[in-house]
Amino acid sequence: VFYLNHEGILRLLGEKPSIEVDLDKAHAFGKCLCGLAAKERKIVFSSDIHHDERCQLQDCIEAGAQSFVAMPLVKEQELLGLLGLAWKESYDFENELKFYETLAADLSIALYNAILYEEVKEHAEKLEEKVKERTQELQKMVHLMAGREIRMAELKNIIKQLKEQIRAAGFTPVVDDPLSED
Hints:
Helices cover 47% and strands 20% of the residues. It has a 6-stranded antiparallel beta sheet with strand order 3-2-1-6-5-4, with helices on both faces. The protein is an alpha+beta fold and 182 residues long.
């Protein structure tokens, strides 16, 4: 079983192989073997979960498990998630602590990298959306400025025509055209 830590609750992300038993989708810290491993940030073993008082939930037993190891996935004392491995027969973990510690450390790094990757990906998507918004704003501004330039050219032409009409009527314009380019 694979859980992610979500605000102090272990949320089930998946189980392999898929089992017919409906596992609890959330696990409190300190409850059952997985919760105990999460709370203490230490690997928890049980060679026989049927007779282990720490195994408080029946999910693993109902799924046919006999032995279980719960490995907290930790980065700098922050619990990222938890991996639980089950065996259908009794399994002796006596001399394998170092192996599971190494496995948990490697999986912790992989999970941390996956979390960082997702965060970077989400950040990139947000930045892409901001770029899109800014581009649309700039495009709108360009269109407004282009429209302004067209209106200015039209106004210059109208002012020129009015000046010509004033001169044709025998008058001298008293105001210069501030928009004139001559």
